[in-house]
C-alpha cells in the first residue's frame, strides 16, 4: 500500500478513465435530463443524451492533434468512359 | 546505386518523370482509404519494368509530395515496406483556415482511444476502451448512427490503417485483447497536443501527469527525435 | 513552365483537397490566410496567378484547380479536378462499381432532360437496368444522400441536378460523351443544364439563367442575341455578391 502510494506521487497524477469520460460528455454537450433531479445519478454517465453533432464537436477540437494528409477525391476518371445508350425518341 | 544509375541511362528523362507521376497518382488514390501502401503492390501495379530504378523513382515521388503537396511520404514498416502520407505543414492554431470544412467524427473517436492508451502508459485492455465508449453512448455491440459497426471500425479499420494495434494478451483465460498505438499514430499524432487537450478537459496542468509530460516533451538532449515535439 | 512553390501554395492546395470546391470569395480569403500563415506577400488581385503556379506543378499528375461558374447563382468557383482516365484513376475507392454505374445513369437522365433535372423516382427506376450488382431502394437513397454530401449532385424537392463541382470536373467528359445532347450557353459558351431556350424554332439558342440575368439586366424589351426575336421568358434577378466580390 505505502509503496504504491509513493510510486504514484513520483509518477504524478493518476489518470482516471471514468473522470475522462465525464469530461468528454460535458465537452460534447451532454443534455442532462432535468426532470430526474430526485433520482440519484447511477454511475454518473447513465443519464442524458448527446446532441447530434457531439462527435463532430470533439473531432473539430481534436483535429490539431493529428497531422493527417488531406486526400484527393474526384469523379471524372473513376469509371470507364462510355457513351450513353442510344435514345429512341418519339416526337 | 550503380545499378540504378545504369538503369537510368537506358531511360529517357521523360519516361522517368512519367513513371514518377504515376507513382504519385497511385499513392494519392490509395491514400483515400488511409490504409498503408505496400511496396510490393506499388511495384507490381505501377513500377513494373522500371523496378531497377525504383529507389530513384520513390525519391522523386517523395520530392513531389514535399514540394507540391506539403506532404511527407514515410516508410512506417521497414520490414514489410509500407508507406503512408503525413502532413508536412504545421497547423498554426492562431490562424485557422477561414473556410469551414467538414469534420470527420472518426477523428473524435480516435482521440478518445489514442488518448486513453497514451495516458495509461501505452497499452490498455480492450474492455477499458469499450467501457469508456459505452459511457460516451457508443455501444460496441450496437450499430451507431455515426460509426456503424463500432467494433469493426475500431478493431479492423483503425488497425488496418495502423492507427491502432490490437493484440491478444498472452496467457489469459478467457482470451483478452489489448490496444496500443499503431505506427501511423506514431507518425501522425502529437502526444504533446493530446496531453494539452487532456489538460484542458480536466482543467489541470499538463505537467501534473509527470510521465506523460516527459514522453510528450522529450528533452533536446534525447537522441530520439520526436515528431510530436513541435509547438 | 513549372514554378517553385512555397508553403502558402502547398497549404492552399491542401485546403482544396479537403474542400473539393470553393467559391471565389472563399478562395480569396483562403489565399490571404495561406500567405499570412507563411508570411509571404499576398496581392489580392493575383489569385489566379497564384493558382496557375500550383497548376503548373500539378499538371504532370493530370490534376488542376479549375475555375467555373455555378449555374445556380452565377458566381465563380474553383474546384480541384482530375483530368486523366487511366487504370490508376479507376482504382479510386470512394464509390463501388454499381454505385458509379447508377451515378452514370443519373447523369444520362440529367443530360438528356429538358430542364437538367431528374427525379429521385426516375433514378430509383434505373436500378432495374443495371449490369453490375443491383442496388436496393434503401441503398440507392443512401447513395444519393452521399453524392449530395460529397458535392457531386444537388437536390431540391426530390429533384437532382449536377453540382457545380461535378460540372467543372466533368465538362470535357460530358462534351465528349453526350455530343448530340449537350447544350451550350450562347453567352459564356460553357455547357448548360439550367438554362432558358429561345422559342424561335429556327434559333433555339440556350442561355444559363445567371447569364440571362446579367445579359438582359436593365433591358425592358429583351430580344434574343442570336435571332433578335422577343425573349419571352422571365428574366431572373442578378444575384447579389457578384458586384461585392468584384472589389
Ligand atoms: Zn452561360
Ligand atoms: Zn433566338
UniProtKB/TrEMBL annotation, chain C:
GO terms for cellular component: chromosome, telomeric region; nucleus; Smc5-Smc6 complex. It catalyses: S-ubiquitinyl-[E2 ubiquitin-conjugating enzyme]-L-cysteine + [acceptor protein]-L-lysine = [E2 ubiquitin-conjugating enzyme]-L-cysteine + N(6)-ubiquitinyl-[acceptor protein]-L-lysine. Keywords: Chromosome, DNA damage, DNA recombination, DNA repair, Metal-binding, Nucleus, Telomere, Transferase, Ubl conjugation pathway, Zinc, Zinc-finger. This is Non-structural maintenance of chromosomes element 1 homolog. It is an enzyme of class 2 (transferase). It comes from the Eukaryota. Signal peptide: none annotated. One of its GO terms (molecular function) is zinc ion binding. Belongs to the NSE1 family. Component of the Smc5-Smc6 complex. Its EC number is 2.3.2.27. It comes from Fundulus heteroclitus (Killifish). One of its GO terms (biological process) is double-strand break repair via homologous recombination. It is found in: Chromosome, Telomere; Nucleus. Residues 185-227 form the Non-structural maintenance of chromosomes element 1 RING C4HC3-type domain. RING-type zinc finger-containing E3 ubiquitin ligase that assembles with melanoma antigen protein (MAGE) to catalyze the direct transfer of ubiquitin from E2 ubiquitin-conjugating enzyme to a specific substrate. Involved in maintenance of genome integrity, DNA damage response and DNA repair. It holds the Pfam family SMC_Nse1.
Amino acid at each position: 500500500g505505502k509503496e504504491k502510494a509513493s510510486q504514484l506521487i513520483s509518477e504524478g497524477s493518476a489518470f482516471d478513465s471514468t473522470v475522462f469520460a465525464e469530461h468528454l460528455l460535458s465537452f460534447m454537450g451532454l443534455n442532462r435530463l432535468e426532470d430526474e433531479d430526485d433520482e440519484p445519478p447511477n454511475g454518473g454517465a447513465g443519464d442524458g443524451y448527446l446532441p447530434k453533432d457531439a462527435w463532430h464537436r470533439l473531432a473539430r477540437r481534436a483535429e490539431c492533434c493529428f497531422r493527417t494528409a488531406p486526400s484527393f477525391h474526384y469523379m471524372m476518371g473513376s469509371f470507364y468512359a462510355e457513351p450513353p445508350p442510344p435514345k429512341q425518341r418519339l416526337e | 546505386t550503380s545499378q540504378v544509375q545504369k538503369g537510368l541511362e537506358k531511360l529517357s528523362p521523360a519516361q522517368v518523370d512519367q513513371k514518377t507521376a504515376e507513382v504519385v497518382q497511385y499513392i494519392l488514390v490509395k491514400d483515400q482509404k488511409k490504409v498503408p501502401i505496400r511496396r510490393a503492390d506499388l511495384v507490381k501495379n505501377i513500377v513494373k519494368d522500371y523496378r531497377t530504378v525504383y529507389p530513384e523513382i520513390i525519391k522523386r515521388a517523395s520530392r513531389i509530395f514535399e514540394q507540391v503537396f506539403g506532404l511527407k511520404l514515410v516508410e512506417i514498416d521497414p520490414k514489410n515496406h509500407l508507406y503512408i502520407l503525413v502532413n508536412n505543414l504545421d497547423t498554426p492554431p492562431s490562424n485557422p483556415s477561414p473556410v469551414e470544412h467538414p469534420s470527420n467524427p472518426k477523428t473524435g473517436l480516435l482521440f478518445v482511444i489514442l488518448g486513453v492508451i497514451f495516458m495509461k502508459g501505452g497499452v490498455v485492455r480492450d474492455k477499458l476502451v469499450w467501457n469508456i465508449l459505452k459511457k460516451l453512448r457508443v455501444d460496441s455491440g450496437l450499430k451507431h448512427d455515426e460509426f456503424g459497426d463500432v467494433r469493426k471500425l475500431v478493431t479492423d479499420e483503425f488497425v488496418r490503417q495502423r492507427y491502432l494495434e490490437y493484440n491478444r494478451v498472452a496467457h489469459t483465460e478467457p482470451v483478452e485483447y489489448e490496444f496500443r498505438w499503431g505506427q501511423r499514430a506514431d507518425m501522425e499524432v502529437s502526444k504533446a497536443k493530446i496531453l494539452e487537450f487532456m489538460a484542458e478537459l480536466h482543467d489541470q496542468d499538463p505537467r501534473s501527469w509527470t510521465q506523460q509530460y516527459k514522453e510528450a516533451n522529450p528533452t533536446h538532449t534525447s537522441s530520439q527525435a520526436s515528431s510530436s515535439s513541435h509547438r | 513552365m513549372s514554378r517553385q512553390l512555397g508553403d502558402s501554395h502547398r497549404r492552399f492546395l491542401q485546403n482544396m483537397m479537403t474542400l473539393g470546391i470553393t467559391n471565389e470569395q472563399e478562395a480569396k480569403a483562403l489565399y490571404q490566410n495561406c500567405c499570412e500563415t507563411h508570411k509571404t506577400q499576398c496581392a489580392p488581385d493575383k489569385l489566379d496567378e497564384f493558382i496557375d503556379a500550383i497548376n503548373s506543378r500539378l499538371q504532370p499528375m493530370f490534376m488542376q484547380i479549375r475555375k467555373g461558374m455555378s449555374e445556380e447563382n452565377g458566381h465563380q468557383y474553383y474546384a480541384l479536378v482530375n483530368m486523366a482516365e487511366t487504370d490508376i484513376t479507376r482504382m479510386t475507392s470512394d464509390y463501388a462499381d454499381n454505385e458509379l454505374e447508377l451515378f452514370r445513369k443519373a447523369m444520362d437522365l440529367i443530360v438528356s432532360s429538358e430542364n437538367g433535372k431528374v427525379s429521385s423516382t426516375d433514378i430509383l427506376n434505373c436500378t432495374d437496368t443495371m449490369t453490375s450488382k443491383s442496388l436496393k431502394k434503401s441503398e440507392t437513397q443512401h447513395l444519393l444522400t452521399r453524392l449530395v454530401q460529397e458535392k457531386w449532385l444537388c437536390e431540391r424537392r426530390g429533384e437532382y441536378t449536377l453540382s457545380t463541382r461535378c460540372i467543372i470536373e466533368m465538362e470535357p467528359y460530358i462534351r465528349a460523351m453526350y455530343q448530340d445532347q449537350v447544350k451550350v450557353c450562347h453567352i459564356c459558351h460553357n455547357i448548360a443544364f439550367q438554362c432558358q431556350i429561345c422559342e424561335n424554332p429556327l434559333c433555339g439558342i440556350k442561355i444559363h439563367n445567371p447569364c440571362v440575368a446579367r445579359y438582359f439586366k436593365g433591358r425592358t424589351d429583351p430580344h434574343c442575341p442570336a435571332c433578335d426575336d422577343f425573349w419571352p421568358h422571365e428574366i431572373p434577378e442578378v444575384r447579389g455578391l457578384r458586384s461585392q466580390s468584384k472589389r
